Amino acid sequence: MNKPVTPNSLRTGPDEAGRFGTFGGRYVAETLMPCILEVEAAYKAARQDPAFEAEWRWLLKDYVGRPSPLWHAKRLTEHLGGAQVYMKRDELNHTGAHKINAVLGQILLARRMGKTRIIAETGAGQHGVATATACALFNLPCTVFMGATDVERQQPNVFRMKLLGAEVVAVTAGAGTLKDAMNEALRYWVANVHDTYYCIGTVAGPAPYPQMVRDFQSVIGEEAREQMLAATGRLPDTLVAAIGGGSNAMGLFFPFLDDPSVAMHGVEAAGYGLDVENGHCASLTGGRPGVLHGNRTYLLQDKDGQILEGHSISAGLDYPGIGPEHSWLHEIGRVKYVSATDREALEAFQLCSRLEGIIPALEPSHALAHVMRIAPTLPSDHHILMNMCGRGDKDIFAVAKHLGVTL
Amino acid sequence: MSRITARFAALKQEGRGALMPFLEAYDPDPATSMAILRGMPGAGADLIEIGMPFSDPMADGPTVQLAGQRALKAGATVAGTLAMVRDFREEDQDTPIILMGYLNPILSYGPERFCVDAAASGVDGLIIVDMPPEESQDVQPFAQAQGLDLIRLVAPTTDEARLPLVLKNSSGFIYYVAITGVTGTRSATGDALRAAIPLVRAHTDLPIAIGFGVRTPAQAAEAAAIADGAVVASALIEKLASTLDAQGRATPGTVRAVLDDVRALAEAVRG
Q1: Interface probe, candidates B52, B135, B165, chain A, greatest A C-beta count within 10 A
Q2: A29 to B58: CB separation less than 8 angstroms, yes or no
Q3: Closest CA to A334 of A230, A231, A261, A400
Q4: pLDDT at A6
Q5: What CA–CA distance (Å, rounded) separates A215 from A91?
Q6: How does pLDDT run across A127-148, given as a tens digit for each residue?
């Protein structure tokens, strides 16, 4: 029979130009171009070096506490009355989120490259905390750029970063959120490329970052695959993960991309609602392709190509772009992208706390909100695996405020 | 011969480098920036760079960022910027105009339509900051088809192995970024430039203009002498900003203050 010609694997990207389909690339000013090519060459060499891999794996095990457990959320499952809900417990990692997985890989890379200063951008502060943590461990000076609005709504993480010895720069440009922090980090990097490594927190930015961060975060999906097989004897039916830039989702999805029986749902932040102009951060469902922060990807933008600020209750999802590999997976239809509003995320946040004794971060609360939507419609032999990619300690002040509680 | 090539050739005959002042379109409002644009040739501008406002100007320091924010607040669009050039061309057929901006507004406008409209409006060259040679496929064919010069940036980090790639398909002139950093933050020394420019020159016959950190008449004169031209941006925007009222609006002295500075720069460049 004449079968349509399809690629043998969805896991071969990016190509030499740093592209996933038409997305990705290296859209940076000439000053930075030689530097990102240097990072790429160093990363390729590191991946070939068993000693690099061994040191990273050791850190993941003895410092981060991997593998993170797989949890069958029976009370939530019973409450929802449909599919079985499993959680990949990356919120139990040291520093409270999945970010540390890729940070440690990148800090080891920076050391190999002989870089002596580390910079990072952060939204919710989880990536900033993870970077500050790794820098403390390796005795590297660390500067974290954080939007002034986010500094305000994520005070606990700002204090954590300072305790860890990092300098936190509050960025007042724009709306003072993640995109502005990334602009400022790129500006700082341009001026300090000779000794500075930019540790990007998500699967976006110029190549090789989308690939590199995905590769490191894939430890989530690799573990989860084995754990689901051990626990249930088969692969999960549906994966669910929240998406801002998309690192936790890419990490969970990637090892399953070539398993056609596994459905994947990425959950974007719908903020006040997708119909509210500039009131959400759903780049795929509410944006169109463009170029920002070094890559071609779906972006929230106005009709003249100016980038919109967007809105989400979750600082970690408050980003007008998305990793280029997600844009590609969206266009080829391998992953289904949906969204959850602030209100739905807040409900999920509270329900999970009460039923499972797990206070989730607002980011995975969006994934949970989608699980709450689909689980009741599915049979009890359907297995959903969601990525509990961060814990909610950092969010309790913000949530209390939204619920009208004064702490 | 393009307007840019003709202008650099004429200046070479005169034995001096070019002064290339910069203004951000629509900063702080369309009428004021149009008046500054119209006045620049008379004040001694040899070529003019017009910044196309973008919400996320990653290569720019605070001065140009704020100019862009004022411009966007004043309603700046790609179409509005092209209209400024069209109006300018009704009176001035000779002064080359170079648009400097970021890729996304161009992609949003449509790269082919943009190049067609830009050429028809009288634009001579494009500098697209976040479009390195590796990513120029979206714009280059259309720019070439319309006779627009695609002006590439060469930075201190661009090594000799990379130079040929950057220079390939460049036309008009080469924009040498004098510092590793964003616009308007610090200045390169004359010695550093005297060491760097010959390395670039060895690889190209195109004129070389120096930008980023050229602020004073003395620095402009030095840069224009070491290379073939000097771009002055942040210093002029700072002057403009200093004349605005508390609400960020132009005052009666705004246009003149900027043009006086252009005149001083031009006098220094002309020696």
Answers
A1: B135
A2: yes
A3: A261
A4: 57
A5: 19
A6: 999 999 999 999 999 999 999 9
**Mean pLDDT across B23-37:** 98
**What 8-state DSSP symbol labels residue A53?**
H
Residue A4 reports pLDDT greater than 70: no
* Chain segment A377-406, per-residue pLDDT in tens: 999 999 999 999 999 998 998 899 999 998
Q: Is B189 on the interface with A (CB under 8 A)?
A: no
- Rounded to 5°, the CA angle A102-A107-A113 comes to 130
| Residue A297 DSSP class | E
CA distance B271 to chain A (A): 31
Alpha-helical (H) ranges within A192-246 are 209-232
So what's the pLDDT on residue A1?
Answer: 44
Tokens standing for residue A139: 């005795």
> In the predicted model, is pLDDT for residue A86 greater than 50?
yes
Measured between CA atoms, the residue of chain B closest to residue A33 is: B132
* Residue among B46, B60, B117, B124 flagged as catalytic: B60
Closest by CA to B55, choosing from A326, A182, A207, A121, is A182
For chain A, the average pLDDT equals: 95
| 3-state secondary structure labels for all residues of chain B | CCHHHHHHHHHHHHCCCEEEEEEECCCCCHHHHHHHHHHHHHHCCCCEEEECCCCCCCCCCHHHHHHHHHHHHCCCCHHHHHHHHHHHHCCCCCCCEEEEECHHHHHHHCHHHHHHHHHHHCCCEEEECCCCHHHHHHCHHHHHHCCCEECCEECCCCCCCCHHHHHCCCCCCEEEECCCCCCCCCCCCHHHHHHHHHHHHCCCCCCEEEECCCCCHHHHHHHHHHCCEEEECHHHHHHHHHCCCCCCCCCCCHHHHHHHHHHHHHHHHHC
Question: Which candidate from B135, B162, B181 shows the least CB-CB separation from A191?
Answer: B181
Residue A69 above 60 pLDDT? yes
Active site (annotated) includes residue B60: yes
Tokens (6 digits) for B197: 């420019």
Q: How many C-beta atoms surround the C-beta of residue B205 within 10 A?
A: 6
Do A52 and A112 contact (CB within 8 A), yes or no? yes
CA distance linking residue B146 with residue B148, whole number of Å: 6
Distance in angstroms (rounded) separating the CA atoms of residues B210 and B230: 5
Of the candidates A289, A290, A250, the residue with the CA atom closest to the CA atom of residue A10? A250
Contacts of A179 (CB under 8 A, 6+ apart): A147, A292, A293, A307, A309, A319, A320, A321, B56
Residue whose C-alpha is closest to residue A244's, from A352, A150, A138, A374: A150
pLDDT for res A174:
76
Residues 6+ apart with CB under 8 A from A274: A280, A282, A285, A286, A339
- Interface confidence, given as ipTM, is 0.95
